[in-house]
Design goal:
Blueprint lengths: L14 H32 L5 H24 L13 H20 L1
Helix pairs in contact: 1-2
């Protein structure tokens, strides 16, 4: 269930959307790294094999993820981002209901 962005997503001009996208990409890369390296180490140990390239792959990939994390969490400039958060499907009806109530309240005044 993908999140909905409350306005038209524009990576170039919407800093909040770019920050969200960068963090989602980081989380996705960590998940793929964890899955692949864990499976490779598991099968290496299960088969009593010696895969000398596995340690280099694991540490190299981890290094790339650390560099990405440093960039996303410390270096990237999101200073002009607002506090916009993604809306998930379960909350979409609540947000729509709140906006309907606020528009009804404006017309009755």
């Amino acid at each position: 269930m993908p999140p909905y962005w409350p306005r038209e997503p524009d990576r170039k001009n919407d800093t909040a959307f770019r920050r969200f996208g960068d963090r989602v990409n980081l989380a996705f890369n960590i998940a793929i790294y964890s899955t692949v390296t864990t499976a490779l180490w598991f099968f290496m140990l299960l088969q009593y094999r010696d895969w000398p390239w596995l340690k280099g792959l694991t540490l190299g990939w981890l290094g790339v993820i650390v560099i990405q994390a440093i960039y996303v969490l410390a270096i990237a400039d999101y200073s002009d981002a607002d506090d916009t958060k993604p809306i998930f499907k379960k909350d979409k009806d609540k947000v729509a209901g709140e906006s309907d109530e606020s528009s009804e309240g404006e017309g009755s005044g």
